[in-house]
C-alpha cells in the first residue's frame, strides 16, 4: 500500500485514537495519582497530588452533607419503618403477645414460672398490706354513726311510733358498738381476708389474657389493634427524629472518609465506577478516531 495513502487516510484517525485514549487514561489516573504532593527545587509540581487526594477533605464534607440532607433523611427512614411489610408483622406479634395468658407472658419475661409466682405473691402481700393500712386509718365509728344514723332515719321516715322507740342516742350507742366490733375484727382478721381476696384476684388476672382484660374495660380487639398501630407510628416518627438529632450523620461520613487512606478511597471508587472509568478511556479513543477521520477531509 502506498505510504501516501497510509499517511493521509489511515495514520490521522489512528493517531487521533491513540492520543484520545492516552489523554483520557492520563486524566482518569490523575484523579488518584500521585497520592502525595511532588516538589522540584522546593516548588510544587502542578497537578500534584491527584484531584481526589487533593480534595479529599472537601469530598468528605460534601459526601457527608449529601448523605444527611438527601440520602438519610428522617422522612426516608420513617417511611421505610412504616411500610406494611415492617409494620404488620410487628403489630401481629404484639397482638399475639396480648392474646397469651398474662402468667405465661410474665414467666417468659421474668425467666421462669417459679419467679413469676414469687413476684405474684410479693405483689399480693404488698397490696394487701397497703389496703389493710388504709382501712385501719379510716374512722369506722364516725362513719357508722353518720351513715348509720342517716340510713336508719330514712327507714323510720315519718313513723311516730318508731321515732319514739328508736332515738338518736340509741342509734349512736348501737353504731358505736358495731363500729368497735368492726374495728376489732379488722385488727384481727382484716389483713387475712384482704390478702385472701387480693391473692385470688391477682391469680385470676394472671390466668386471663391482656386482650380479655381490655375487652372487659370496653376495648375491642379492633380498637386495640388501631391503638397499637397509632402508637407504633407515633413512636417511629419520634424515635427517628430524636435519633437523628443525636446522631450527626454528616460528621460520621466525613470523619470516616477522612480516616481512609488514598489507596482505600481509590479502591472504593474503582469498585463502584471501574466500568464507567474504563468506558471514558475508550470513549477518548473513539473521539480521537472520529476527529482524526474528520481531519482527512479538512
Largest sheet geometry: 2 strands, antiparallel
Question: In percent terms, what proportion of residues is strand?
Answer: under 5%
SSE order: HEEHHHHHHHHHHHHH
Structural class designation: mainly alpha
Determine the mean pLDDT: 76
Which residues sit in consecutive blocks of at least 5 with pLDDT less than 50? none
Q: Which strands sit side by side, in order, in the main sheet?
A: 1-2
State the total count of DSSP E strands: 2
How many domains? The number is 2
**N-to-C span:** 23 Å
Shape: rod-shaped
CA gyration radius, whole angstroms: 44 Å
Individual helix count: 14
Helix content: over 70%
Please, what is the oligomeric state?
A: single chain
In terms of topology, how is this protein built?
Layout: H1 3-29, E1 39-40, E2 43-44, H2 51-54, H3 56-71, H4 74-81, H5 84-98, H6 102-110, H7 113-136, H8 140-156, H9 160-165, H10 168-206, H11 210-216, H12 221-246, H13 249-259, H14 262-296
Antiparallel strand pairs: 1-2
Helix pairs in contact: 1-14, 3-13, 4-12, 5-12, 6-7, 7-10, 8-10
Amino acid at each position: 500500500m502506498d505510504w501516501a495513502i497510509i499517511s493521509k487516510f489511515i495514520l490521522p484517525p489512528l493517531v487521533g485514537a491513540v492520543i484520545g485514549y492516552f489523554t483520557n487514561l492520563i486524566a482518569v489516573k490523575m484523579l488518584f495519582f500521585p497520592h502525595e504532593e511532588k516538589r522540584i527545587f522546593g516548588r510544587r509540581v502542578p497537578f500534584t497530588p491527584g484531584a481526589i487526594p487533593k480534595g479529599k477533605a472537601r469530598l468528605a464534607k460534601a459526601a457527608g452533607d449529601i448523605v444527611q440532607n438527601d440520602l438519610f433523611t428522617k422522612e426516608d427512614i420513617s417511611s421505610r419503618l412504616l411500610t406494611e411489610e415492617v409494620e404488620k408483622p410487628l403489630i401481629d406479634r404484639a397482638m399475639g403477645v396480648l392474646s397469651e395468658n398474662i402468667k405465661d407472658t410474665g414467666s417468659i419475661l421474668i425467666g421462669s414460672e417459679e419467679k413469676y409466682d414469687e413476684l405474684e405473691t410479693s405483689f399480693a402481700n404488698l397490696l394487701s398490706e397497703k389496703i389493710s393500712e388504709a382501712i385501719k386509718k379510716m374512722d369506722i365509728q364516725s362513719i357508722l354513726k353518720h351513715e348509720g344514723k342517716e340510713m336508719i332515719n330514712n327507714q323510720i321516715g315519718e313513723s311516730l311510733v318508731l321515732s319514739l322507740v328508736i332515738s338518736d342516742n340509741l342509734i349512736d350507742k348501737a353504731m358505736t358498738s358495731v363500729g368497735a366490733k368492726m374495728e376489732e375484727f379488722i385488727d384481727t382478721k382484716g389483713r387475712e381476708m384482704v390478702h385472701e381476696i387480693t391473692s385470688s384476684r391477682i391469680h385470676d388476672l394472671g390466668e386471663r389474657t391482656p386482650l380479655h382484660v381490655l375487652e372487659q374495660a370496653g376495648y375491642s380487639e379492633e380498637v386495640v389493634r388501631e391503638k397499637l398501630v397509632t402508637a407504633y407510628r407515633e413512636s417511629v416518627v419520634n424515635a427517628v427524629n430524636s435519633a437523628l438529632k443525636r446522631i450527626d450523620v454528616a460528621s460520621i461520613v466525613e470523619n470516616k472518609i477522612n480516616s481512609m487512606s488514598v489507596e482505600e478511597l481509590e479502591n472504593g471508587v474503582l469498585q463502584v465506577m471501574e466500568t464507567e472509568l474504563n468506558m471514558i478511556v475508550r470513549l477518548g479513543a473513539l473521539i480521537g478516531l472520529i476527529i482524526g477521520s474528520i481531519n482527512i477531509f479538512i
